[in-house]
Amino acid sequence: MNKKQKKMLLRIVIAAVLMVILHFAAKAFGDRVHEPVWFFLYLIPYLTVGYDILLKAVKGIKNRQVFDENFLMAVATIGAIAIALINRNGDYTEAIAVMLFYQVGELFQSYAVGKSRKNISALMDIRPDYANVEENGELRQIDPDEVEIGTVIVVKPGEKIPIDGTVVDGVSTLDTSALTGESVPREVRPGDEVISGCINQNGLLKLRTTKEFGESTVSKILDMVENATSKKSRSEAFISRFARIYTPAVCLCALALAILPPLFFLANGRAPGWGDWVYRALTFLVISCPCALVISIPLSFFAGIGGASREGVLVKGSNYLEALSKAKTVAFDKTGTMTMGVFEVNGIHHSSMDNEKLLELAAHAEIFSTHPIARSIQKAWLEGAVFQHNGEPAEKPADLAGRTLDRARVGEVREIGGNGIIAEVDGRQVAAGNTRLMDSLGVPYINCSHAGTIVHVAVDGAYAGHLLISDVIKPTAKEAIRALHEAGVTKTVMLTGDTREVGEAVAKEIGIDEVQAELLPGDKVAAVEALLAKKPEHSVLAFVGDGINDAPVLTRADVGVAMGALGSDAAIEAADVVLMDDDPKKIALAIRIAKKCMRIVYENIWFAIGVKLICLVLGAAGVANMWLAIFADVGVMVLAVLNAIRALFTKNLRA
User: Fold this and answer.
1) Catalytic option among 68, 333, 583, 633
2) Catalytic residue check, 513
3) Is the four-CA dihedral 181, 187, 193, 199 of positive or negative sign?
4) Whether the Cβ atoms of residue 247 and residue 294 lie closer than 8 Å to each other
5) How would DSSP label each residue in 242-281?
6) H-helix or E-strand containing 102?
7) Do 257 and 620 touch, CB atoms closer than 8 A?
């Protein structure tokens, strides 16, 4: 409990004690003390507990924002005091109790919101306080904002990584749980890229920064979470519009209740009973306060966004959380989304020479290329990948320790855009590429019956065989598709730039319903637009991509989900939802969190409005007095707030 809340609690206790003392004193000495004295004595606890409400009501009137809960409370309690003063019965306790219970409800609401904010802050406690920079052999702690790109910083065990960078020295494991929600540590060594917000667990690391602090991952994440509540959902917008219409309407109804029945009775020659009807009108005003709706609905979304962030799912606004709950169609990119984006040489077929020799020539031909496929060929040879030759098993080479790619063995290199590479290796012409390269060289080739990327190799103009290269499917991809269907998604689609054979093979293995292959980025946008036109009415289409080359599609979809894009500027900018690790199961989890949040929102809306309508009718009929009114108002608010906080807890939603 913070200082402000403690101060409010003290005011409530003092006012309650004074009210009880005055109540018993009035019973004991009521006839001996004049009425104005009791009036001024009762004003002390009333102003003690309610002066801030009165000030807010006055400020609202000055700012022409009259009809809020502060105005309603001020009018209702001042009216109750006026009735007691006119009747000269000394019963001011009701007005004080109304203000007292209202403030108890406000204190509870403030504590609940503060508690949820504290939980979220703890979960997202990734903001670094300092960066260690080595100067003259000593470490100096400086503000991360002052660290320039290219600076070497030192991260000791137990410290947060303050800025994105590359490991230049040291080996360690990183705790990424604050970012991804996963407890499995990540091993890093020289050359690995690391992101801010992770905790260095056991080894001393030296990093060369690659971004300024303001552009680093941790800054972008914090900024996104802090601004998430600025994007309101349709439900929140409805509540705001509802309150603007509802509050003036109930004020007019209360005024009519105070005036019209007495005038009717007066016109018919009966006693008007002004005091009774004014009291009913004031009770009507107290009941009408829309506190439960105004407080609990935004709190539900705030808690939902916080619960999602704890699971490593960052939602940019409550509007996207609401949209995600209606997702019925989910489209995926393939590479980096449902597959690891890590290519491996899985086979060598139809080789006219020893497989080891063919792989060695191809690796050297690709020596200057940084393409993922070229790197996979280089890696296969450096690590001594073993493949059968003519059905005979091969043994792993024994001389891997000193194996390197020797640039001196490579002469002229020509890269044929979109086709492959022709290089001179050990004085021999080696061509490695696709069928178009073979056709251009006039080399007959043999097609492969396996799904994957095929790299044909020709040596000195003669076909030497081909390499089968495949992307690795993520281990949780199949389970992710199953979980999506269980979460209510009716259609899954894969949009890929790869060949149809590869796309269909991956889709069949993991259970995706439909495949559209050989698509350029522009084609993917057109494909998403076609899917949007076919989707069920009032449903949402979500697109899941790697957040870099899929930025146009992420923007075009109803909800764009960046997958495996930790640290990617394109992902954070283009996507509406960012998954902080590359586990596709998190998509279904995000949908379940969104659905739970919306279920809580609708529960609170119907519960609050339903109880309000019943109490308003009872209050207008004179059945409910002001004590019951404030109990109903505060009680509904407390129950709605408690229900809203449930959105923060997501453990039972994990698959």
Assistant:
1) 333
2) no
3) positive
4) no
5) HHHHHHHHHHHHHHHHHHHHHHHHHHTTS---HHHHHHHH
6) helix 93-123
7) yes
